[in-house]
Automatic annotation (TrEMBL):
Domain of life: Bacteria
Similarity comment text for this entry: Belongs to the UPF0065 (bug) family.
PROSITE patterns reported in the protein's UniProt record: TAT
Gene3D superfamilies: Bordetella uptake gene, domain 1, Periplasmic binding protein-like II
One family name in Pfam for this protein: TctC
Signal peptide feature range: 1-24
Organism: Paracandidimonas soli
Protein name, as recorded: Tripartite-type tricarboxylate transporter receptor subunit TctC
CDD domains: PBP2_Bug27
Length: 331
């Protein structure tokens, strides 16, 4: 089986993360919530995670009749914000919304993470999923994913990929594609966020990128980038003419990023259930589903048990991709 080896440096911020045990919770659902709730987003404002979080927070305010604020704590592949939540008081007033990178990080950074991405959090609910678009700079001759794979083979060293960060969904999806294409040495440039990566894709400094529909769609419509494929099993209604990776000849290729709601570990069961019920109602709202759909997402509510099982299955799938593509950081 061909492999694609990548070696990366961790950031100093990862080493600075601390894991102190949370204080005992004093909250019960009978009085919850009695003060402002903070939803921590471990990414910069404006991206897909932030967009999902702000949509959800606005509806959570209405469901719980309490103020809800979004706090961005970006850095270290979302681990700075995660570490903050892991050591917060499990009282329901510090919540956490992140994407699938939360479950990818422990597979890559392993003992370099000073918190447990499963045990140090209470999984409350899955919220939504969304595929990625396979984008190329307009100067690329290929018009399909299969043609681009052929171009890579015919022109070694000519093309490169961009990713918004080590271990992010676009990184895994890109490595997955390169592995499935039999490529061993195509560069994957790591950026500190999706925005600068997209700018370099538009400028032609890099050739290709996987990206969320939310941020990619305006660029596709403006002809600044070209979409070769979508990574979901079905075509996106927002881009019905763009084929899936499976239609392009990659029969097993399906990859979506997902978004979930967590709290610190040991959240009282009644508070967990109060938040879970609120999430269930929010994700069933037609206006919420319509808004998510317009941004390239699909509402996908699953409660604590279903969400925990989903996380477990996704981590196993990610490990398969990481092993096959031989994605590693420097030891």
């Amino acid at each position: 089986m061909p492999t694609l080896r990548r070696t990366f440096l961790t950031t100093a911020a990862v080493a600075a993360l601390i894991s102190s045990a949370p204080l005992a919770a004093q909250t019960s659902a009978s009085s919850y919530p009695s003060q402002t709730i903070t939803v921590v987003v471990p990414h910069a404002p404006g991206g897909p995670v932030d967009s999902v979080a702000r949509l959800f927070a606005d509806k959570l305010k209405d469901q719980l009749n309490q103020s809800v604020v979004v706090e961005n704590r970006a850095g270290a592949s979302s681990m700075i914000g995660a570490a903050h939540v892991a050591r917060a008081n499990p009282d329901g007033y510090t919540l956490y919304i992140n994407a699938s990178i939360h479950s990818i990080n422990p597979l890559l950074y392993k003992d370099k993470i000073q918190f447990d991405a499963v045990k140090d959090f209470t999984a409350i609910s899955l919220l939504a999923q969304g595929p990625l678009l396979f984008l190329v700079n307009p100067s690329v001759k290929a018009t399909t994913a299969k043609e681009f794979a052929d171009e890579l083979k015919a022109n070694p060293g000519k093309y490169s990929f961009a990713t918004g960060g080590f271990g992010a969904a676009d990184h895994l999806a890109s490595a997955y594609f390169l592995h499935e294409s039999g490529q061993k040495s195509i560069p994957i440039a790591l950026y500190k966020g999706g925005a600068p990566a997209l700018q370099d894709l538009i400028g032609g400094s890099v050739s290709a990128k996987m990206d969320a529909i939310l941020t990619a769609l305006p660029l596709v419509k403006a002809d600044k980038v070209r979409a070769l494929a979508v990574t979901s099993a079905k075509r996106s209604p927002l881009l019905p003419d763009v084929p899936t990776m499976q239609e392009a000849g990659f029969k097993d290729f399906e990859f979506s990023t997902w978004y979930g709601l967590w709290a610190p570990a040991n959240l009282p069961a009644d508070v967990t259930e109060a938040l879970n019920k609120a999430a269930e109602r929010i994700m069933a709202l037609p206006e919420m589903q319509d808004k998510l759909s317009s941004l390239g997402f699909v509402a996908d509510y699953r409660g604590p048990k279903g969400f925990a099982e989903f996380i477990d299955s996704e981590m196993k799938r990610y490990q398969t991709i990481i092993t096959a593509a031989d994605i590693k950081i420097d030891q």
